[in-house]
């Protein structure tokens, strides 16, 4: 469930990270001539907020403390130097990055904002739109308005992978803006429930496509050293989108027709997404896969600067992305070469949903009321704030502690929180403190979720999937996410009625512990490794 003000100017390496070697001529293993530039201070773009660890996030840019070298994001590669006598000797090359990926990450993250906004907008608006459309007494039709978005998202997540493979990442974003904009317009102008449902379906298709291609695009254009931080921004923007929907609903109490404006607002980032993607570079990895070498080099220059072209192109070629392998089909995902990594991706999203996040959020209002917090807005704001705060912490730790350790810590914290919630409802000795304990358990659970289980799966999946299957495998995993989300929403209340909320929470705690065991034995650490290195280890060419 990830908005940070992104700028185009750079973060500076204070200790003056320098490029190896003076201007000398080298050749790589494919005999492609390259020039290693003269040593200069490295700079590339990043603007975030706050301070964490060695990164100082501020309105001017990000400064990396002494000892860091974030901009030098591709590992030094061994190349062969052409000596005057014809002999070759291995040397290390490390060129500077003068481009900036941050503006393009910011544009892509508009899709994440829309993801969160469309998920949250109906919560405050449902009561008012139901009265306006004459379905205030019809819980079934109200349920359709809510669940149609999830059904559309399931379709969109599967569709997004194929579109991204066929047309490229940026063109898929442009196509995605169509259902997002049309869906927002239909919802805002609906005069009957049928139009509202169609609008929600289109919006769902749009956010389903976004859920697949936003993390995919960000992971493919992000420098290795800060890929975790940038990838977790996706989750942070989703959280901000949900909070934006909450804030947008504040005028409803004084203006019952404000719900139309709430839906209309979502058309603005949809249009901005389309406009931004018209000037954003295509993923170099997809371009190389399509053998569009000239366009790939141009995209690399835009993203990383001229000095990175040979280095990145060599890395992409070494990974086999320029090979004669055909594009993967859906059935290739289940081949012996890819099945393990695909199953890990699907399992992470299943654990994410089966761990009970939607149940906790759903019951948070009643839990807070029991503790004396009567305001639904205050309860939602507290949960949302915990989610955003935890995601910001995760962003700062992603490239320091690693994805796997954050996942284990997150699910462990979720298990303990679920156990606390379960005991607060059953242990008589805790009865006098049940309200405060339930609130503490809920906030700790959401905080733990946002540290790993929330942001990491969407970041990790594009990293572990080979480029040949990446778009379709991400789409499949996101499809499992939406399907499990839909099923849990459909049967959750029935299960609670039959077994009681305490036992259900205990079941969620058990699932969290199973997730810890599964992650410990099946998930690989990807921190500080290029996508090509990961691909060569997990999905070597046959």
From TrEMBL:
Residues annotated as domain Major facilitator superfamily (MFS) profile: 104-527
Keyword DNA-binding listed? The answer is no
Entry's localization field? Membrane
Q: Which SUPFAM superfamilies match?
A: MFS general substrate transporter
CDD domains noted in UniProt? MFS_GLUT_like
Membrane topology note: Multi-pass membrane protein
From what superkingdom does this record's organism come? Eukaryota
The record's keywords, sorted A to Z, are:
Membrane, Transmembrane, Transmembrane helix, Transport
InterPro entries from the xrefs? MFS_dom (IPR020846), MFS_sugar_transport-like (IPR005828), MFS_Sugar_Transporters (IPR050360), MFS_trans_sf (IPR036259), Sugar/inositol_transpt (IPR003663), Sugar_transporter_CS (IPR005829)
Q: Does the keyword Transmembrane apply?
A: yes
Q: Which GO terms describe its molecular function?
A: carbohydrate:proton symporter activity
The membrane spanning regions, by residue number, are: 101-119, 139-161, 173-191, 197-218, 230-251, 257-279, 341-365, 377-394, 406-425, 437-461, 473-493, 505-524
Entry-linked PROSITE patterns: MFS (PS50850), SUGAR_TRANSPORT_2 (PS00217)
Q: Which GO terms describe its cellular component?
A: membrane
Query: Which coarse location class applies to the principal site listed for this UniProt protein?
Result: membrane
Matching entries from NCBIfam families are given as: SP
Question: To which protein family does this belong?
Answer: Belongs to the major facilitator superfamily. Sugar transporter (TC 2.A.1.1) family. Belongs to the major facilitator superfamily. Phosphate:H(+) symporter (TC 2.A.1.9) family.
Q: What is this protein called?
A: Major facilitator superfamily (MFS) profile domain-containing protein
Name the lineage: Eukaryota, Viridiplantae, Streptophyta, Embryophyta, Tracheophyta
């Amino acid at each position: 469930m990830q908005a940070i003000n992104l700028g185009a100017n750079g973060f500076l390496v204070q200790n003056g990270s320098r490029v190896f070697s003076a201007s000398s001529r080298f050749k790589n293993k494919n005999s492609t001539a390259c020039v290693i530039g003269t040593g200069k201070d490295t700079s590339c773009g990043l603007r975030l907020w706050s301070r964490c660890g060695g990164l100082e996030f501020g309105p001017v840019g990000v400064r990396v403390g002494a000892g860091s070298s974030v901009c030098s994001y591709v590992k030094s590669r061994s190349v062969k130097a052409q000596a005057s006598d014809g002999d070759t000797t291995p040397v290390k090359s490390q060129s500077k990055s003068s481009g900036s990926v941050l503006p393009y990450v910011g544009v892509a993250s508009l899709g994440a904002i829309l993801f969160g906004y469309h998920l949250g907008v109906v919560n405050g608006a449902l009561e008012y739109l139901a009265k306006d459309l004459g379905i205030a007494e019809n819980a079934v039709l109200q349920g359709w308005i809510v669940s149609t978005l999830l059904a559309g998202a399931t379709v969109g997540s599967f569709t997004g992978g194929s579109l991204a493979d066929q047309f490229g990442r940026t063109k898929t974003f442009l196509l995605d803006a169509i259902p997002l904009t049309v869906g927002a317009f239909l919802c805002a102008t609906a005069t009957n429930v049928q139009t509202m449902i169609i609008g929600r379906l289109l919006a769902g298709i749009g956010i389903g496509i976004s859920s697949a291609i936003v993390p995919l695009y960000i992971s493919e254009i992000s420098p290795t050293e800060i890929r975790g931080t940038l990838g977790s921004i996706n989750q942070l923007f989703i959280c901000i989108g949900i909070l934006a929907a909450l804030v947008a609903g504040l005028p409803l109490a004084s203006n019952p027709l404000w719900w139309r404006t709430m839906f209309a607002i979502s058309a603005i980032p949809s249009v901005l997404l389309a406009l931004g993607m018209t000037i954003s570079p295509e993923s170099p990895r997809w371009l190389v896969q399509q053998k569009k070498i000239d366009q790939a080099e141009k995209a690399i220059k835009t993203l990383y600067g001229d000095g990175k072209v040979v280095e990145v192109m060599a890395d992409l070629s070494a990974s086999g992305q320029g090979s004669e392998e055909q594009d993967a089909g859906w059935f290739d995902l289940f081949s012996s070469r890819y099945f393990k990594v695909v199953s890990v991706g699907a399992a992470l999203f299943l654990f994410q949903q089966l761990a009970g996040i939607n149940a906790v959020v759903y019951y948070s209002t009643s839990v807070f009321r029991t503790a004396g917090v009567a305001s639904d807005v205050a309860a939602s704001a507290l949960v949302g704030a915990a989610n955003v705060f935890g995601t910001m912490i995760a962003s700062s730790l992603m490239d320091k502690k690693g994805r796997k350790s954050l996942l284990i810590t997150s699910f462990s914290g979720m298990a303990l929180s679920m156990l606390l919630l379960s005991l607060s409802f059953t242990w008589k000795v805790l009865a006098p403190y049940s309200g405060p304990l339930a609130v503490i358990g809920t906030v700790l659970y959401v905080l733990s979720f946002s540290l790993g289980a929330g942001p990491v799966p969407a970041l990790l999946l594009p990293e572990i999937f080979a480029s040949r299957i990446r778009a379709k495998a991400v789409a499949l995993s996101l499809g499992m996410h939406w399907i499990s989300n839909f099923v849990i929403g459909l049967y959750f209340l029935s299960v609670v009625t039959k077994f009681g909320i305490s036992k259900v929470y205990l079941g969620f705690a058990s699932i969290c512990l199973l997730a810890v065991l599964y992650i410990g034995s099946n998930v690989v650490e990807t921190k500080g490794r290029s996508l090509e290195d990961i691909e060569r280890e997990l999905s070597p060419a046959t």
